[in-house]
Design goal:
The chain is α+β, with helices and mostly antiparallel strands. The chain has two domains: 101 residues, no CATH class; 152 residues, 3-Layer(aba) Sandwich (YojJ-like (1). 55% of the residues lie in helices and 15% in strands. The protein is built from eleven helices and seven strands. It has a seven-stranded mixed beta sheet. Catalyzes the condensation of 2 ATP molecules into cyclic di-AMP (c-di-AMP), a second messenger used to regulate differing processes in different bacteria.
């Protein structure tokens, strides 16, 4: 008890802040790697650290030397093994920090843009024509755009519908939208590595989730089997949406509340 009392008496406000910051960082790191291969690797690292300390206490020198050598060189390898998680974490910080407030959705934003998207989705859904549209936001998608065919045309429901007509050159892949422009078509998207997804979800849905995990893009999917409408955002997918719900979501993208408050 005396030791605890002495420790508390020496505790400064800076120490409390320091501990709180470290605790928050550790919490977010665990949350970030949960459900990924990094979770299992991190458990292995903890075991190695415990064994290293035990071998030092028990004076098992050869084992201690091997474990320390493993940790020394292993930390260099972690940057390679954890590269996807590190990138994902840095992108998460970039999307959620105050720095991003300096960036805006490029392109013109008006009611007609939303109406054209809704009209196209309604027609594609009614005809059960598969489609995948990705709306670019804060995070640039140049790497994805370069995998497809450049269009840079004014967004219209007719153009969107024609792109996804089966057996046409651009129907297979994603359309990238920025503001009121269709930037590119037939783009390849990264597939999600999430293992617990429903078996009903096809390649389009998995691609939509994948791009939403790696960026803040908003993806719209129309199922060619059922015509149902789904959207993916921040690694989550919402399925079986109606057009009014989709319209509200699009308004939140094209006319965010922060913009309305500034006006």
């Amino acid at each position: 008890m005396q030791w605890i009392s002495e420790t508390l008496s020496m505790l400064r406000i800076q120490d409390v802040i320091d501990i709180a910051i470290v605790a928050v960082i550790i919490y977010w790191l665990f949350k970030l790697i949960k459900g990924t291969r990094a979770e299992q690797l991190s458990k292995g690292i903890v075991v190695v650290l415990i064994l290293t300390k035990l071998s030092e206490i028990l004076q098992i020198y050869m084992l201690n030397y091997l474990l320390k050598s493993m940790l020394t060189w292993g930390f260099l390898g972690l940057f390679i093994v954890f590269q996807p998680e590190i990138r994902r974490g840095l992108e998460f910080i970039g999307r959620n920090s105050s720095i991003r407030k300096g960036f805006v959705l490029s392109g013109t934003r008006d009611e007609s843009t939303i109406n054209e998207i809704i009209s196209a989705v309604a027609s594609l859904s009614r005809q059960k024509i598969g489609a995948l549209m990705v709306i670019e936001r804060k995070t640039g998608l140049n790497e994805i755009i370069e995998t497809g065919t450049s269009i840079y045309g004014d967004l219209s429901s007719g153009l969107l519908i024609n792109i996804f007509i089966p057996n046409t050159p651009l129907h297979d892949g994603a359309v990238i939208i920025n503001g009121d422009q269709i930037v590119s078509a037939a783009c390849f998207l990264p597939l999600t590595e999430e293992k617990g997804l429903s078996k009903e979800l096809g390649t389009r849905h998995r691609a939509a989730i994948g791009i939403s995990e790696k960026s803040d893009a908003f993806a719209i999917v129309v199922s060619e089997e059922t015509g149902s409408i789904s959207v993916a955002e921040f690694g989550n997918i919402n399925r079986h949406l109606d057009l009014s719900t989709l319209e509200q979501m699009l308004r939140g993208i094209y006319f965010p509340k922060s913009d309305e408050e500034e006006i």
